[in-house]
Inverse folding.
């Protein structure tokens, strides 16, 4: 028998209360009578003056205790589990997120969950249809409506735990989609997260969480101090356990021990820890928690300190003082200016900016920005708008700016958006700016001449142009932004247009070819924690850029912490998991009928003065 | 005139005196005259002399006429001593109407009737012992002594009927003894009857209970305090307990009645709300 709500058994507290009430005399009103003689004869049970009396065999008391026990059982909603599962359509959800690698259950939560899931599949009838959903950063429907139990078991056996955080909402959405077709499907959920908000009609929840102590480094960042030749590092340490903890934290610079500190953190809280005096020449920082816990992977975090790589840009214009001024201000950018003539031929630049005309043959070794270009083989002009207001559309270029961007133009080209492009700006007649990859080159096109707009006098002009340059020329060799990510993040890439082959070397040493085909703009297989390498081959030259993937502890363990409060989950000591099961035949109705019978019997016994 | 024995009460018992007979033999056949033949002025009958008869009673005139010895028989007239034992323990001072009122009125009524019949009346108030009494009163003029006694008596303590009657110092002659009590008493009631019977008493047992003792009217859970002993008993009044109480009461009355039958006593069972006329009528008519 399984209790759906074991907390209901708390009602059993009433049993000793009833016994105490029978032991304890009632407080009564005094009433003087002529003689007790007849009453004593009637009662034949003299009582002493003590507050307690000997517990007698009292049929009413036994009936009341029985009624309370039944009530407790009813509150607990007991089910009788049937030997063989009767469902014909089953969804199995297996949590593959980082927290499932915790070792509070042996060998770890994930392996225990997999084994139990396999046992469960075996317990179903032969014609059962199984769907398996993998719960990780992006929920995955591993198999759908498969009735081959061996295949299902094999697929579950082959599952690997990831270092990513879980996407609970996405998973629930996916399950709801499946249930929309077949509402009678039974969900079996193997995980360690908080499922309090989940409200499926038929669900078995197998919880693998024994609330072991876990500590994690949830943030590691650095800052170069102005006018000082040193770096300050900030690390944030979180205590995800239920007890306060004193932790030893170490910092390593370029693989060498730098400093260690001891920190006391209250249960469920986090603290910032600062490290100073780190040499500015440091290129790799690693912070570690030396105190043991149930999950080692989130006990360390690391970051790469990027070297400044100088990029080259060529501005092809007759004269554009606005662009020139901004380009001069962008750090680590070597800026050259030239004019376009019939013999224009340029190469060796990372970025080409054409203001007005474009050459017959566009350069292939760098990314390109065009202002007011003529029609060419890459895109066509749909028309010209005059005296128009130009607005932005949603794009990375504007992510640092608040509110909508608006400016006016005397004249602008309106384009047919090419298939390879994403829009950047529009007016009331169509798209006036766009960007996208043509083979390996990223091209950004603005349909207006800056001189014919009031954009250069807008406060957001330098922000937009600087952002556009950064988008096309990231500071690292191919990685946009800081080269530190959390497992499951998408790594935005800015591949060199000259690259012939692009690979990612994963932390376990596997080389994964991601291009060709070109273009390649991102890499999303960051399921494992560790150091990755982006490798670009440009002819004989190979360009490498490392990036770090850290544990997404903060996101992952929030639900785990919430789960600590979910006490209504029944623990199964044999298999090590905790189970919340709603399957089988409910005994509630039967127990209610028995309770009613007992209450009637109690009334009858009371009314007729029957004793034992 | 007190409230207990007001003019209305006096009128009632005077009326009762005219209509009732309370005689020694208990058969209520004559005006305090015994059917036993003896020495008196009123001729009753003749019978033949047998050896052993008092020869002074031989009617010599009849011997002259019939030449046979005849003995003159006369109606024997004697003072019937009437002794009334009234229970004045604390338990008697309880109930609505109070048992003490009913019992004292019955005592007064029976006393008055007896005094009216020229009987010799003694009234003894007892609890564990006879506390107060007035003895051998004759004539109606003595009635005020009885009412004084009854009006001033106090109800205290618990009763021991056997000890009280056996220790009561009096010259027992053949007569009537009335015991008025609720019989929530210590001591053997059977021994009392035996003792009185041994002293040639015609015994009248008047058992008085209040309506609340016959049909208890409590709320569910109460603590009962014994008025005499102060003893405590917690009860929860259930239909089952009420039924058990009724059985106990019935058994209690049955036991008293059985003893009365055994020792030839007359048993009368009254509720304290019974009128004095009904009580007297029942006692005098049997």
């Amino acid at each position: 028998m399984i209790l759906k709500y074991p907390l209901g058994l708390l009602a059993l507290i009433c049993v000793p209360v009833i016994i105490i009430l029978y032991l304890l005399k009632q407080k009564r009103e005094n009433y003087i009578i002529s003689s007790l003689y007849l009453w004593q004869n009637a009662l034949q049970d003299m009582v002493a003056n003590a507050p307690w009396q000997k517990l007698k065999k009292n049929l009413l008391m036994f009936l009341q205790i029985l009624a309370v026990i039944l009530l407790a059982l009813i509150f607990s909603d007991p089910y009788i589990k049937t030997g063989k599962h009767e469902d014909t359509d089953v969804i199995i959800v297996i949590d593959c997120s980082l927290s499932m690698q915790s070792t509070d259950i042996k060998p770890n939560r994930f392996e225990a969950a997999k084994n139990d899931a396999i046992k469960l599949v075996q317990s179903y009838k032969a014609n059962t249809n199984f769907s398996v959903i993998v719960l990780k950063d992006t929920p995955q429907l591993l198999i759908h409506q498969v009735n081959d139990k061996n295949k299902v078991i094999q697929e579950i056996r082959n599952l690997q735990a990831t270092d990513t955080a879980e996407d609970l909402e996405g998973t629930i959405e996916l399950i709801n989609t499946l249930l929309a077709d077949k509402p009678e499907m039974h969900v079996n959920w193997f995980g360690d997260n908080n499922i309090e908000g989940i409200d499926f009609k038929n669900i078995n929840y197998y919880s693998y969480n024994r609330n072991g102590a876990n500590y994690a480094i949830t943030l590691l960042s650095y800052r170069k101090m102005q006018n000082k030749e040193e770096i300050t590092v900030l690390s944030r340490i979180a205590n995800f356990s239920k007890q306060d903890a004193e932790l030893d934290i170490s910092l390593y610079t370029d693989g060498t021990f730098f400093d260690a500190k001891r920190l006391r953190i209250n249960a469920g809280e986090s603290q910032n820890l600062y490290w100073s005096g780190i040499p500015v020449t440091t290129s790799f920082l690693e912070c570690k928690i030396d105190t043991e816990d149930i999950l080692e992977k989130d006990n360390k975090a690391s970051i790469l300190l990027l070297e400044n790589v100088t990029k080259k840009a060529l501005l092809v214009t007759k004269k554009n003082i606005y662009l020139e001024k901004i380009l001069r201000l962008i750090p680590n950018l070597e800026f050259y200016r030239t004019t376009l003539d019939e013999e224009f031929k340029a190469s060796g630049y990372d970025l080409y900016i054409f203001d007005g005309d474009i050459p017959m043959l566009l350069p292939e070794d760098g990314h390109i920005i065009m202002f007011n270009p003529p029609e060419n083989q890459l895109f066509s002009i749909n028309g010209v708008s005059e005296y128009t207001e130009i607005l932005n559309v949603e794009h990375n270029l504007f992510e640092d700016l608040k509110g909508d961007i608006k400016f006016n133009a005397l004249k602008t080209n309106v384009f047919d958006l090419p298939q390879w492009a994403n829009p950047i700006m529009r007016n009331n007649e169509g798209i006036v700016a766009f960007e996208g990859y043509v083979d390996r080159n990223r091209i950004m096109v603005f349909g207006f001449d800056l001189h014919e707009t009031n954009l250069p006098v807008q406060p957001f002009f330098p922000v937009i142009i600087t952002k556009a340059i950064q988008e096309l020329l990231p500071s690292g060799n191919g990685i946009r932004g800081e080269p530190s990510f959390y497992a499951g993040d998408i790594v935005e890439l800015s591949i060199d247009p000259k690259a012939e082959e692009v690979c990612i070397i994963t932390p376990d040493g596997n080389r994964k070819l991601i291009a060709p085909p070109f273009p390649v703009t991102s890499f999303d297989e960051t399921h494992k924690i560790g150091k990755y390498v982006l490798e670009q081959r440009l002819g004989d030259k190979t360009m490498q850029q490392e990036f770090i993937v850290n544990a997404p502890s903060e996101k992952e363990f929030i639900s785990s912490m919430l789960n600590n409060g979910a006490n209504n989950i029944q623990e199964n000591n044999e298999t090590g998991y905790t189970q919340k099961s709603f399957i089988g035949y409910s005994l509630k109705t039967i127990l209610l009928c028995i309770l009613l019978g007992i209450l009637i019997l109690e009334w009858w016994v009371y009314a007729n003065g029957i004793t034992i | 005139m007190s409230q207990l024995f007001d003019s209305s009460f006096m009128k009632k018992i005077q009326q009762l005196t005219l209509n009732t007979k309370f005689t020694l033999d208990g058969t209520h056949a004559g005006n305090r005259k015994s059917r036993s033949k003896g020495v008196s002025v009123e001729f009753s009958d003749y019978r033949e002399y047998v050896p052993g008869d008092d020869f002074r009673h031989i009617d010599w005139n009849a011997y002259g006429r019939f030449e046979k010895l005849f003995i003159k028989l006369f109606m024997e007239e004697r003072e019937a001593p009437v002794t009334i034992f009234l229970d004045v323990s604390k338990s008697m001072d309880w109930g609505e109407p109070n048992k003490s009122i009913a019992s004292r009125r019955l005592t007064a009524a029976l006393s008055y009737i007896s005094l009216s019949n020229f009987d010799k009346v003694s009234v003894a108030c007892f609890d564990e012992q006879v506390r107060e009494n007035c003895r051998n009163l004759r004539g109606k003029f003595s009635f005020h002594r009885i009412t004084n006694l009854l009006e001033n008596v106090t109800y205290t303590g618990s009763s021991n009927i056997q000890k009280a009657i056996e220790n009561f110092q009096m010259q027992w002659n053949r007569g009537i003894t009335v015991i008025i009590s609720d019989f929530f008493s210590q001591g053997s009631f059977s021994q009392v009857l035996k003792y009185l019977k041994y002293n040639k008493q015609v015994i009248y047992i008047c058992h008085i209970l209040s309506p609340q003792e016959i049909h208890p009217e409590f709320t569910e859970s109460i603590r009962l305090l014994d008025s005499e002993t102060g003893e405590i008993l917690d009860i929860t009044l259930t239909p089952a307990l009420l039924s058990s109480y009724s059985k106990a009461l019935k058994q209690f009355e049955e036991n008293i009645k059985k003893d009365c039958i055994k020792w030839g006593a007359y048993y009368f069972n009254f509720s304290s709300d019974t009128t004095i006329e009904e009580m007297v009528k029942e006692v005098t008519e049997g």
Remarks:
- Chain B touches chain A through 40 residues (CB under 8 Å).
